[in-house]
Amino acid sequence: MSEHTPTGAQPEEPSGSEPVRLDQGHVQGTGGVPEQFANPGLPPHVLRNADLDEKAAKRAERQVALLFLVSIFGTVLFIVAYLLVDTGTQVWVPFTNEMSLSNLLLGLGLSLSLLGIGLGAVHWAKTLMPDTEVVEMRHPMRSQDEDRQDFVDTMLEGGESSQLTRRPLLKATFGGAMGLFALPLLVQLVGSLGPLPRNDLSVTFWDKSENGKSDKLRLMRDPENTPIKPADVTIGSVFHIQPEGLLDLHHGKLEQMSKASVLLMRLNPKDFQDTDRGRKARSWGHEGIVAYSKVCTHVGCPVGLYEQTTHHLLCPCHQSTFDVTNDCEIVFGPAGHPLPQLKVGVDSEGYLIADQPFQEPVGPSFWERG
């Protein structure tokens, strides 16, 4: 008796096909292995109503088509809501309080589009497509040419047996549902890119087309909103400048400031480099006073640091450095272009003005600029 055998119990000798219990201890096997396992076979195939009754098959066909039509309706609802419904319109929905009508219709439309295709495909497969059990014996990995051709024939036969060719209503509604389902994805992709930039980066408040006034606007201190004379700009000083009229705006002020902001400083005219860029920078200034865009050409951070001894402008975000003596040429950092220069002059009253707007786009590089 084994120490694992309960008291008063006799161990039973297991047969070759029975499992060994934990309370039987060590068991000596016979070493016999069955030569072949019995094939359990397949349960008898049960025919569906659609297999026995053509009326049931037609009813299933109409049900599947209805589900695909639901998908088409959902897709159309999504597109109409995306294009026509105002995002600010609110509606009351039970259990959720108020919510955006646009979001509600977009969600319902996409849900119906997905649900109709999914339920239609499942119902189609369950009621009309063949459901006979198939057993495939193992064979070499690479089939013979005859078998490969048989596969092609089987696929074609499957398409025929799915009754897609016999039932044009299914083909039309399924094709419509699958074809239209891609439209919500494309609409979101294209619509979410926002408006095209057009000339938004090339035109600022310094341009007449933006301010509705003369091109030669006065340079105004920011935030004092007062004009400035050349005598006010001493060597080493820096002024934050906005175009005349911008600080008086009530709408769109921040957007305009983000493009039109300018840094104004004065150098000794002898400090400009004797290069084409240096001579251009000096000629576009007034008695050594020069003005450059404050928007870094890397990612648009404000260039707000001026080193008087080196005449360098520094962007604090990623340390792009521009040399004012050479028309703000890049001397360090990831910026892709020099800062655009604003050509300045003096009006009849002695105040500094912009002789012309920026002659190149301000801000970061973009695909049209290179």
UniProtKB/TrEMBL annotation:
Compartment list: Cell membrane
GO molecular function list: 2 iron, 2 sulfur cluster binding; metal ion binding; monooxygenase activity; oxidoreductase activity, acting on paired donors, with incorporation or reduction of molecular oxygen
GO cellular component: plasma membrane
Topology with respect to the bilayer: Multi-pass membrane protein
Claim: Cell membrane is one of the keywords in the record: yes
InterPro entries recorded: QcrA_N, Rieske_2Fe-2S, Rieske_2Fe-2S_sf, Rieske_Fe-S_prot
Chain ranges passing through the membrane: 64-84, 104-125, 169-191
The Rieske domain, residue ranges: 259-353
Residues covered by region (Disordered): 1-44
Pfam families: QcrA_N (PF19297), Rieske (PF00355)
Domain of life: Bacteria
Keywords assigned by UniProt, alphabetized: 2Fe-2S, Cell membrane, Disulfide bond, Electron transport, Iron, Iron-sulfur, Membrane, Metal-binding, Oxidoreductase, Respiratory chain, Transmembrane, Transmembrane helix, Transport
Family under the similarity heading: Belongs to the Rieske iron-sulfur protein family.
PANTHER family reported for this sequence: CYTOCHROME B-C1 COMPLEX SUBUNIT RIESKE, MITOCHONDRIAL
Protein's job: Iron-sulfur subunit of the cytochrome bc1 complex, an essential component of the respiratory electron transport chain required for ATP synthesis. The bc1 complex catalyzes the oxidation of menaquinol and the reduction of cytochrome c in the respiratory chain. The bc1 complex operates through a Q-cycle mechanism that couples electron transfer to generation of the proton gradient that drives ATP synthesis.
The protein's name: Cytochrome bc1 complex Rieske iron-sulfur subunit
Species whose genome carries this gene: Janibacter cremeus
Source species taxonomy: Bacteria, Bacillati, Actinomycetota, Actinomycetes, Micrococcales
